[in-house]
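Ticket opened by: R.M.
Priority: normal
Category: complex prediction / small molecule

The reporter submitted a protein together with protoporphyrin IX containing FE and asked that the result be attached to this ticket for the collaborator who will pick it up next week. Submitted input follows.
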Amino acid sequence: MITMLLAAGLMAAQPAAAEPPVADPAVKPHYPTLPVITQNEHLYETFGGKEGLTALMDDAMNRWLANPRTRPFFANADQARIKDLLVKQFCVIMHGPCTYDGRTMAEAHRGMNVSEGSFYALVEELQVAMNKRHIPFNAQNRLIAALAPMHRDIINNTK
Ligand code: HEM
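Result attached by the on-call engineer:
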């Protein structure tokens, strides 16, 4: 299921820009071109605000450290700093009252050579952590759809 979701998100990935005009309104896209979370979805509240996101990231990081596909990347990294920046990043994505002061995804993952398999493993562990916190499936889906386009800057980033 997660693979299908990600595949849908990856296909929907587009550079951040205004939604292109619909030339023929009869042609309905399968996915939104830009997987943007709108303010009125109240996703930040659904995830339990800053407290909820912090607990989610604590759990997710433990899972990334336990998973052989993600562990090598995080084992010797500054885990507390990454968690803090992920909370801020997700908070901003969900229109929460935060500022993201980390690097761009391209910069942060440069030269790391993250494979597609490791990327999927990270998202799958995140999904397990979200399930544990009883985040509704639809809300999970919205977050993953917002994260999926980032794969372009993260996977096989050898720059
Ligand atoms: C959509 C998926 C991902 C998101 C949203 C994400 C987000 C972030 C953020 C916000 C940071 C901190 C930025 C900074 O250091 O200024 C970061 C750093 C990092 N990420 Fe990711 N990441 C993703 C995927 C991955 C994957 C798949 C891996 C490896 C399996 C990974 C490994 C790392 C590591 C090791 C750092 C620390 C880099 C350093 O300290 O120099 N990330 N990521």
